[in-house]
Write a structure and sequence with these properties.
Blueprint (H helix, E strand, L loop, with lengths): L60 E2 L13 H22 L12 H15 L44 H13 L7 H8 L3 H7 L12 H12 L8 H17 L5 E2 H10 L5 H10 L4 E6 L20 E6 L1 H19 L8 H10 L2 H12 L2 E5 L6 H12 L4 E5 L2 H13 L11 E3 H6 L16 E4 L7 H9 L6 E6 L12 H8 L4 E3 L6 H11 L13 E5 L3 H19 L7 E4 L9 H12 L14 E4 L2 E2 L3 E9 L2 E6 L2 E5 L4 H4 E3 L2 E2 L1 H4 L4 E8 L9 H8 L2 E9 L4 H8 L9 H14 L7
Parallel strand pairs: 5-9, 5-10, 6-7, 6-8, 8-9, 11-21, 12-19, 12-20, 20-21
Antiparallel strand pairs: 1-14, 2-4, 3-4, 13-15, 13-18, 15-16, 16-17
Helix pairs in contact: 1-10, 2-9, 3-4, 3-5, 7-8, 7-9, 8-9, 10-16, 10-25, 11-12, 12-13, 17-25, 18-23, 19-20, 23-24
Length: 759
């Protein structure tokens, strides 16, 4: 590899001769693999600490699309929240219609038997607040029409993503008084009232540990609040404490990407949190309906597969999982919807010979993709950035066949890039422009074809790019929104970072092997493609970079890393590579620390757009990341400000952020985390690896960060051997999910279900 392109300094710093720095005790870098809440826009959330047993993952926040328009028009976030509420209500109705208790578990003992006994006690009415646990039925999923079809809307309103309705001022004041009595910060009054809803002050007095439902509050803080309110009545064995800690641990697990936890891991975490009887605490949470328990059969290696009609499965090993209801319902709904796609016959959209003619005109894996889509309702497609030409070709051929075909990406940057790619494909142009939208815009109705009279998306084929970024709730909404007979293609690079939200939908589908999988044979070109491809298989290779496509800039400490990063963005890369600063992005492992996004953005602003920050810390021309919705990031820049709020331009869409939300929803955006950068590409990327972030590195993180560059990559390198070690030895942290087991059950049941009369 070459060194830095024509630096402005006379000499190059030598190889780092110091050990990696220890993280500062008061401002650790909030990396993708540290505290799940550390990258939240809520300042209080950055101090939350997850359980030791739960693998951690970052939780970057992101943004929804927005723009000026009719004030009466629903904002994207409002529409999305409404769609989620409607979908959850539909799922709950469907679950209520199912009946029959869990039949397995006759051979269980110990904790597993106790958990099952608790569930059956709830079902029999021996304990209150029952939530019936039923095994999935074999009958096909029946779609329910939406109450009102969502038509393609006009421009999105200025409040692109308004917050939920604020609690009443008297409620907030009452909560503030309770918090004051318990010695808790009064600044928690508003989030506590919003989290606990009506009667929040009464709920806090009756159960002080409900304070844990506020983002960022830690168990020890809730304990102190409870002691102040309850006095001598407060004890570590209080059942309210055990239930609250159980829910909190499950919520932390969801932030780390898990949809459920094994019962043993959960009870061990409760014991570490000072709960005297973890089993009793867990059973109490189950009895009150705060959590759900599941038993998934395990297929041991070498064991014979279960045969149809074999009812004696009591000897098969099972794992007992515990999860929150919202993720359990979403995961089961997703499995049902995927089974419907896998086992359904796609709608006839043209003669078979037309599909074959389209496949013949393509080449290699693109032809395989077209043939697979012609015959199946669900298809997976994997490959790097260059492989996107194949979904683009599929989309073009589908248009030729007269299908209502659309593509959806994770971010607006990805949408714009793929729209340019589809425009390069030969074929008739669409009168309404490229059929490419974002997933969020498609679900909310702000983008895309809208919905038909039954509430389903008005399309025949949907190609979802960046599929690894689908969390379980978004994927469930997407799949349940597809009409019967539609085709779904999930495409993406399995080596990138997984979704910010819980679940690993794309990886679970690849592992389950329930549908065709087409692996692209289109390689990523050039030295950058060679470097990133090697990282994907665990090798950090030296590559020849005659055009300075890849350079390494060694640094000794975080201060030098910040200095050299500013120098690269402002001077070296524009002069040597020809990429201006506005087309260069900086990627670093986390927000905090001496070389995190906060420090880097402050230094880059001072050099590239100095100003007093007169608009809530921002000035016109500042690069920003707009983040009103957790899990999505929308880069843009500041246009100005007025009485309505801070005015932004995000991917060409005007957005107005109310003054009270500027601090929480907008960050400076010259420097991003890898999760914020997923789904986008830039001509030049500077990846900053300070010594204190060595523990945050993993193969998916490095692969994702390095893969955001299309022309030039500079690596500000201060982690010595931690980088090659991470690439070779640190894969993605596992996530506990139920989707593979549910897919096996649902797809088999759908395949065995009798066809309706008349078919």
């Amino acid at each position: 590899m070459s060194t830095e392109p024509e630096t402005t300094e006379g000499t190059e710093p030598g190889t780092p001769d110091t050990a990696p720095q220890a993280a500062a005790p008061s401002d650790d870098p909030a990396t993708e693999n540290t505290d799940p809440a550390s990258e939240s826009t809520d300042p209080a959330a950055e101090s939350a600490d997850p359980p030791a047993e739960v693998p951690d993952a970052g939780a970057d926040t992101g943004a929804a699309d927005g723009g000026d328009g009719d004030a009466a028009e629903k904002s994207e976030a409002e529409a999305e929240l409404a769609a989620q509420r409607m979908e959850r209500e539909r799922i709950e109705r469907r679950k209520a219609e199912k009946k029959g208790p869990i039949e397995s578990g006759g051979k269980l003992s110990g904790t597993a038997a106790d958990l099952l006994a608790a569930v059956r006690a709830v079902e029999s009415g021996a304990k209150p607040a029952a939530t019936a646990f039923a095994t999935p039925e074999a009958e096909p999923v029946r779609r329910r029409p939406a109450p009102e079809p969502v038509r393609r809307p006009g421009p999105v309103s200025a409040e692109a993503a308004t917050a939920p309705t604020a609690p009443a001022s008297q409620t907030v004041q009452a909560v503030r008084e309770v918090l004051s009595e318990g010695g808790a910060p009064e600044t928690l009054a508003l989030p506590a009232a919003a989290a606990l809803g009506e009667g929040a002050e009464e709920r806090l007095r009756a159960d002080p540990w409900q304070l844990l439902r506020v983002t960022g509050v830690r168990p020890e803080q809730a304990d102190g609040f409870a002691r102040a309110l309850l006095g001598a009545d407060c004890g570590p064995d209080d059942e309210r404490r055990g239930r609250a800690f159980t829910v909190w641990l499950l919520e932390q697990a969801a932030l780390a990407g898990h949809t459920s936890l094994e019962a043993q891991a959960l009870t061990a975490a409760l014991a570490q949190r000072g709960v005297p009887d973890p089993d009793a605490a867990l059973q109490g949470a189950l009895a009150e309906g705060d959590a759900l328990v599941f038993q998934d059969a395990l297929d041991e290696p070498g064991a014979p597969a279960a045969q149809d009609g074999d009812e004696d499965d009591s000897e098969r090993p099972v794992r007992v999982l515990v999860g929150l209801e919202r993720y359990a319902l979403a995961e089961e709904s997703l499995a049902d919807g995927l089974a419907r796609l896998v086992n359904s016959v796609p709608k006839e959209d043209g003669p078979a010979q037309d599909w074959e003619r389209a496949a013949t005109s393509a080449q290699g894996s693109a032809a395989e993709l077209i043939r697979a889509v012609a015959a199946h309702g669900l298809v997976l497609h994997t490959g790097g950035e260059a492989s996107r030409v194949e979904p683009a070709r599929l989309l073009d051929e589908a248009h030729r066949l007269g299908l209502r075909a659309w593509a959806a990406t994770h971010s607006p940057l990805g949408r714009d890039g793929f729209a340019e790619l589809t425009a390069q494909e030969p074929g008739p142009a669409r009168a309404d422009g490229p059929a490419v939208v974002t997933v969020a815009g498609l679900l909310s109705g702000a983008e895309g074809p809208g919905r038909d009279a039954d509430g389903a998306l008005d399309l025949d084929l949907l190609v979802v790019l960046d599929a690894p970024q689908l969390d379980v709730e978004t994927a469930a909404l997407l799949v349940e929104s597809l009409p019967d007979g539609a085709r779904l293609v999930l495409a993406g690079d399995p080596a990138v970072l997984w979704s910010v939200g819980p679940g690993r939908v794309f990886a679970d589908l690849l592992a389950a092997r329930v549908c065709p999988h087409v692996a692209s044979r289109v390689p990523d070109p050039g030295p950058l493609g060679e470097l990133v491809s090697g990282i994907g298989v665990g090798e950090l290779n030296q590559v020849e970079a005659p055009g300075k496509e890849v350079v390494i800039v060694p640094v000794r400490d975080a201060g030098e890393a910040v200095h050299r990063t500013v120098q690269l963005v402002a001077d070296s890369v524009p002069r040597a590579i020809g990429v201006p600063p506005e087309q260069t992005v900086v990627i670093t492992p986390g927000h905090g620390g001496a070389a995190g996004t906060r420090a880097l953005n402050a230094a880059l602003k001072e050099r590239l757009n100095p100003g007093p920050g007169r608009f809530g810390g921002f000035d016109p021309g500042d690069r920003i990341v707009y983040s009103p919705v957790p899990g999505r990031a929308l880069p843009g820049h500041v246009v100005g400000a007025d009485a309505e709020g801070l005015r932004l331009s995000c991917s060409g869409v005007p957005v107005v952020v109310p003054k009270e939300h500027v601090d929480g929803w907008v960050r400076h955006g010259w420097a991003l985390t890898a999760h914020q950068a997923v789904g986008g590409r830039w001509p030049a990327v500077v990846v900053v690896l300070p010594g204190d972030a060595a523990q945050a590195l993993s193969r998916p993180w490095v692969y994702t960060a390095f893969g955001r560059a299309s022309r030039h990559l500079s690596v500000v390198h201060g982690v010595e051997q931690a980088l090659p070690r991470a690439v070779a030895e640190v894969p993605a942290r596992p996530r506990t999910t139920r989707l593979p087991a549910l897919l096996g059950t649902q797809t088999h049941a759908e395949a065995q279900a009798p066809a309706p009369a008349g078919d």
